[in-house]
Design goal:
Layout lengths: L2 E4 L13 E3 L5 E3 L13 E6 L4 E4 L2 E3 L2 E2 L5 E6 L6 E5 L6 E6 L11 H5 L5 E4 L12 E4 L5 E2 L8 E6 L13 E12 L4 E11 L7 E6 L2 E3 L2 E2 L3 E8 L2 E27 L2 E11 L1 E3 L4 H10 L4 E11 L3 E18 L2 E21 L11
Parallel strand pairs: 3-26, 4-10
Antiparallel strand pairs: 1-26, 2-24, 4-7, 5-6, 5-8, 8-9, 11-12, 12-16, 13-16, 14-15, 15-21, 16-20, 17-18, 17-21, 19-20, 21-25, 22-24, 23-26, 25-26
Length: 365
Amino acid sequence: MKKIKLLLGVIALTAGTGLLSSCFTDPYVGVPPEMTMSVDNGYTVKVYTNVAAKLAYNGAAVSQTFSPTTDGILEVSANGYVTQAIPVRLGSIKNITLDVTLIQIPTSDVKVSDANASSTTVTVGNSEENVSQVGQASIVIPGNTQTEGVDPNSSYGIGVYNVTGTATSEPVEGQVVNTDILVAVCEPSGATFDSPVTITVPAPNAAGMAFTCYNGNETVAADVQSNSVSAEVNHFSEWRFMLNASVSGISTSQETIYDANILVEAGNNQIRYMAYTGVTSSISGVAETFLLSQFGSKARRIEKVGNIAASAKGSAHVRVTQEKKVITYKSGSVTFTATVYGAITVEIVDASYDTSGHSGGRGGN
């Protein structure tokens, strides 16, 4: 049996040049310049929701998996639930996954007229369907406080959802990252109070972290407890709780996610491998919520398909690596890390052509 072995990328190609070329769907393909290749640089967004929802991207309806070409706003809605508008930035991560938990429009059995008539403190809680993470949200209305600007027969309600999105910029060491992580939806919207009322949102493991609470251009102080954050407000709408943090360090490496010797036939050949998407947090609770607001979802693996076009039968050693970043953040006195995966590199390490019609073995990752 006679074989001609070409060490692609190691030695100069001679008579066999062009017999094996690669055509992978990932953005960065490590092949010698002598080879002909085509690359799909498209983005894929996959959305996971807790209820059946309608999705629209920049105003146009999309499915749960879609391929955007520009930055935009993803709107997620369902009847009886609070609509969420999620900013999507198309950066170095080509495979974007988003975990979106919709909450029901909040209400309660406490009416405005009842609270206006009360000389004692009135507390309004939430149902399980009104928060996107475990914990108690509440409105505390001091006795004799008067609510104005809404129908006296309307009801109070509070719901809280976690902000989901993608990073507005690539993180760099020393960067300040002040990010919305929780939104308190307070009803009835438009209500005003002659004395401040206190809203509280669940924020597991928040102790020691720095927060800001705001609505539009109005900012109020945030009182941070062990597992919640509170603020005094004088009107109702959506109040946002922002976690204030900075990037104190970044380490970058390459992780091998596929390494195999595969048989190839003349024509198109496929390889399948599992790539990483999403983020892993070193601590649970609001630190993880903060990371999901920038990286979309918890870490998961998704199947990818690569294509190799060959002009003859043979074998190829293929290696796929993915960029891995460990980002260290500090908020207040608390330090935590994020592990995120980015660009994928596909490399044909070497290849053999079988001129007698036989080829070598097959490997796997």
